[in-house]
């Protein structure tokens, strides 16, 4: 059976302290793209795995912004022995899409009360 490209949306409403948190349903696959739809005011946006059943991994960590954008997060590849990043032509890191198996967590900080941040995660489902 072929893999399918799927989309999941995380939406957070910012509360008085400037934060918002939202979780996805469990998913399994490779993260292909992250589309951030910011509110009018500036805020920071992070997408991580939630760490259930293992260590959490940071997918994307965006500084304060308010301009909608699409990102294609990748992670450096390690050697079979777990050594640090593999390089090609000596200086270029080899990177691959993040592989996730569990829930994703949206964390917003430094936002404006009652504004909404939505993030679409496009992934290749296993």
Write up what this structure looks like.
With 126 residues, the chain is mainly beta. The protein has a single domain, classed as Galactose-binding domain-like (Jelly Rolls, Sandwich), CATH 2.60.120.260. Helices cover 0% and strands 58% of the residues. Strand 8 and strand 9 (92-93) form a beta hairpin. The radius of gyration is 16 Å and the shape is globular. The mean pLDDT is 92.
Topology:
Blueprint: E1 4-13, E2 20-23, E3 27-37, E4 43-49, E5 58-65, E6 69-71, E7 74-76, E8 87-88, E9 92-93, E10 95-97, E11 99-102, E12 104-109, E13 116-125
Antiparallel strand pairs: 1-13, 2-12, 3-6, 3-11, 3-13, 4-5, 4-12, 7-10, 8-9
Condensed summary:
The chain is mainly beta and 126 residues long.
| Assembly level | single chain
CATH topology: Jelly Rolls
| Major sheet | 5 strands, antiparallel
What is the top-level CATH class? Mainly Beta
Structural class call reads mainly beta
Domain module count? 1
Q: Which percent range describes the beta-strand content?
A: over 45%
Q: Any guess at the CATH architecture?
A: Sandwich
How would you spell out the order of helices and strands? EEEEEEEEEEEEE
Q: What would you report as the Rg, rounded to the nearest angstrom? A: 16 Å
Morphology: globular
Runs in which pLDDT lies below 50 for 5 or more consecutive residues are none
Count of discrete alpha- or pi-helical segments spanning 4 or more residues: 0
On the 0 to 100 scale, the average pLDDT is 92
Question: What percent of residues adopt helix (DSSP H or I)?
Answer: under 10%
């Amino acid at each position: 059976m072929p893999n399918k490209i799927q989309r999941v949306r995380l939406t957070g409403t910012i509360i008085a302290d400037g934060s918002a948190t939202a979780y996805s349903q469990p998913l399994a696959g490779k993260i292909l793209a992250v589309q951030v739809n910011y509110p009018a005011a500036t805020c920071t946006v992070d997408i991580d795995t939630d760490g259930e059943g293992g260590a959490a991994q940071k997918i994307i960590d965006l500084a304060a912004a308010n301009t909608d954008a699409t990102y294609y997060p990748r992670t450096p590849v390690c050697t079979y022995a777990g050594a640090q990043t593999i390089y090609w032509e000596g200086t270029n890191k080899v990177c691959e899409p993040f592989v996730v198996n569990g829930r994703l967590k949206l964390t917003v900080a430094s936002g404006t009360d009652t504004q909404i941040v939505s993030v679409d995660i496009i992934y290749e489902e296993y």
